[in-house]
Automatic annotation (TrEMBL):
Name of protein: Dehydrogenase
SUPFAM superfamilies, alphabetized: Glyceraldehyde-3-phosphate dehydrogenase-like, C-terminal domain, NAD(P)-binding Rossmann-fold domains
InterPro entries listed in its UniProt record: Gfo/Idh/MocA-like_OxRdtase_N, Gfo/Idh/MocA_domain, GFO_IDH_MocA-like_dom, NAD(P)-bd_dom_sf
Residue span, GFO/IDH/MocA-like oxidoreductase domain: 134-253
Organism: Paenibacillus harenae
Gene3D superfamilies: Dihydrodipicolinate Reductase, domain 2, NAD(P)-binding Rossmann-like Domain
Key word Cell membrane present: no
Keyword set, alphabetical order: Oxidoreductase
Similarity remark: Belongs to the Gfo/Idh/MocA family.
Classification via Pfam families: GFO_IDH_MocA, GFO_IDH_MocA_C3
Gfo/Idh/MocA-like oxidoreductase N-terminal domain residues: 7-125
Top-level taxon in the UniProt lineage: Bacteria
Record has Phosphoprotein as a keyword: no
Length: 333
């Protein structure tokens, strides 16, 4: 069945939009990056010209008023996700909102309710999970090749601490490493185990130089059957993003678990019966895959793989992690 190309409006000129999401849309056969808005019209025009986007607006309201736009992508700072998701829903637009979906579970639930009431789809932008290797990894786990899952380990760190004006370092804007990158290991463990955690314990480095946000955090997230995720995340550490699933009889190792910029970067390794094999995965653009899935869901050709209930559940875990880090205690979910 032929699907009409969807026109996307980009709300803001964030780096992730310019560097990854817009190029991903431009590789898509189902979607078009049709308009971009900024509160600075000159910035919107410059970005539109640089990225070959047809329309530029000097306010988010003007973007929502464009009747030709089908989908709004929201890469705004975290504290603005709730407001602009609800306003986009009320304007009849489908929405792809950056992770984390909101500042807390309550906000996420309000966003989901507004979208359901408006009859529009809301998707949280965890692009990594649309890469085909995660379906492959889930199949390997289900097949018993590595035996029973005993533990998951993951990390996502980078060093941007010198950029003191970055939005990640505004506490009231939802800054901090748990919100920014810790959400990935949390989301991945929930995805691979197919269950929700029972308790969390997190220790964090809160930096007065960076508005008291968590610049580094390490945590233990407890699931059923005595399985746990041990993770760390940070914005003041060397770059890495691995994931490991430890089984009773083998191991799955994903050296670059969340970003796959180059051919080969999506490959992973499976050790089973003492033999370690590299699993080669065709190179795809995860941002394109994410947008194309949403387009098919909007057209009614595919069910949403990850609904708003999943996003709310992920925020519930993030809430607990932040509470644990602040109180230095184990939090039961």
């Amino acid at each position: 069945m032929t699907i009409k190309k969807l026109k996307w409006g980009i709300m803001g000129c964030a780096g992730i939009a310019k560097r990854a999401v817009i190029p991903g849309l431009q590789l898509s056969g189902l979607n078009i990056a049709a308009a971009i808005a900024s509160r600075d019209l000159d910035n919107a025009k410059r970005t539109a010209e640089e990225l070959n986007i047809a329309a530029a607006y000097g306010s988010y309201e003007d973007l929502l008023a464009d009747d030709s736009i089908d989908v709004i992508y929201i890469p705004l700072p975290n504290h603005l996700h709730r407001e602009w998701t609800i306003r986009a829903a009320e304007a009849g637009k489908h929405i792809l909102c950056e992770k984390p979906l909101a500042l807390n579970r309550k906000e996420a639930a309000e966003m989901a309710e507004a979208c359901a009431k408006a009859g529009v789809l809301l998707s949280e932008a965890f692009m990594y999970r649309y890469h085909p290797r995660y379906a492959m990894i889930k199949d390997i786990i289900a097949s018993g090749q590595i035996g029973e899952v005993r533990a998951i380990r993951s990390a996502f760190t980078f060093n941007n601490a010198g950029d003191k004006k970055n939005v990640r370092y505004r506490k009231d804007w939802g800054g901090g490493s748990i919100y920014d990158v810790g959400c990935y290991p949390i989301n991945a463990a929930r995805l691979l185990l197919g269950q929700e955690p029972k308790a969390v314990t997190v220790q964090a480095l809160f930096s007065q130089e960076h508005d008291d946000v968590d610049m580094m955090a390490s945590g233990l997230i407890e699931f059923d059957d005595s399985v746990s995720l041990s993770f760390d995340c940070g914005m003041w550490a060397a770059f890495r993003n691995p994931l490991e699933v430890l089984g009773s009889d083998g191991i799955i190792e994903v050296p670059s678990a969340f970003v796959t910029p180059t051919p080969g970067s999506g490959n992973f390794f499976v050790t089973s019966k003492g033999e370690r094999k590299e699993i080669e995965v065709a190179h795809v653009n995860a941002y394109t895959e994410q947008a194309d899935h949403l387009a098919r869901a909007i057209a009614g050709n595919d069910a949403m793989r990850f609904d708003t209930a999943d996003a709310i559940a992920n925020m519930r875990v993030i809430d607990a992690c932040l509470e644990s880090a602040r109180t230095r205690s184990r939090i039961t979910i």
